[in-house]
Specification:
Immunoglobulin-like; 151 residues; alpha+beta; 3-stranded antiparallel β-sheet
């Protein structure tokens, strides 16, 4: 029993460490469940997986928002970083289903991804393809890679 508890605890720690904010709270999930006859089975938390990297000229951020329409998303750059807000609506066919498993969350959400300070927000580009938001933000001073010599 102690070994199982240790493994479970380690698994949760790794999930929280690796998710780095990807575990996103959806507000209104219980209302969506009640409205669609799910009996409170809709979760209030879901993963919005993201990745961020930089090149010599830009910062690139990608966020997965599966099953969402771009009209239901709002992407902005704030003092704290790249903010993605939206509403994920359940489909109409949810009304007649009796679920044995429901891992998808619905409702309003907000996620902020930290950005470095050396960016030019006036030249940011955003696109939405196949459920993935891609934001490219130019740096104010392009920094070429520095070659290091191994000794």
């Amino acid at each position: 029993m102690a070994r199982a508890r240790t493994r479970l605890t380690e698994g949760w720690r790794e999930l929280l460490m690796r998710s780095h904010g990807a575990l996103t709270h959806f507000v209104g999930a219980s209302k969506a469940a009640a409205a669609h006859g799910a009996g409170g089975k809709f979760p209030r938390w879901a993963l919005l997986a993201a990745e961020s990297w930089e090149t010599a000229q830009s910062i690139i951020v990608r966020i997965e928002t599966p099953g969402m329409r771009k009209e239901d998303l709002d992407v902005s750059i704030t003092q704290n970083g790249l903010r993605v807000r939206g509403v994920k609506h359940p489909a109409e066919e949810h009304r007649t289903r009796i679920y044995s498993l429901m891992e998808r969350a619905f409702g309003r959400f907000e996620r902020t991804i930290p950005l470095p300070h050396n960016i030019d927000t006036s030249k940011a580009e955003v696109s939405y393809v196949d459920g993935v938001i891609t934001v490219i933000i130019r740096k104010t001073k392009p920094l070429p890679p520095t070659q290091l010599t191994l000794e």
